[in-house]
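HUMAN: Forgive my ignorance: could you write out one protein's sequence and backbone structure tokens?

ASSISTANT:
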Amino acid sequence: LIPVDYASHSAHVETIQGAIATALSGIRPRPADVPFFSTVEPGFSNTTALDADYWYRNLRQTVHFHTAIEQLTESGHTTYIETSAHPVLTYSIEETEGADTTTGTLRRNEGTLTRLLTSAAHLHTHGHTINWPIPPGNQATDLPTYPFQHQHYWINP
């Protein structure tokens, strides 16, 4: 594990460069199934180059987050989902012109399923199609149409 009692994105990170190189030396980056846009050097990155040196630079160098979001938005990406334990970047993204929809996946002190469903609903209300499958066994059943219908619908064993 890498200690975190230092200021990220500053010269303080230089003291742990060796620890980072050692901790990540066994990582063999592979091609990603989805495009990867870096905030280290804003632009789409070849994920096979995300080695220990890349992650050191990610911790040491200035984060070009706003530039990255602007470039993504200019290339047609307008929906952003922050995947984190609590949204800290969502508000910055919302300030970027052209970023139409932004949501997080989780939020501190909220149930995870409730939060995830709320985020999915937020996306849905902003025009995104969400696959809402009905779980097996929860199929709709026809019920009587009015209370004075004199047919019984008891389950007989």
Remarks:
- The beta strands are 36-38, 43-45, 79-82, 101-104.
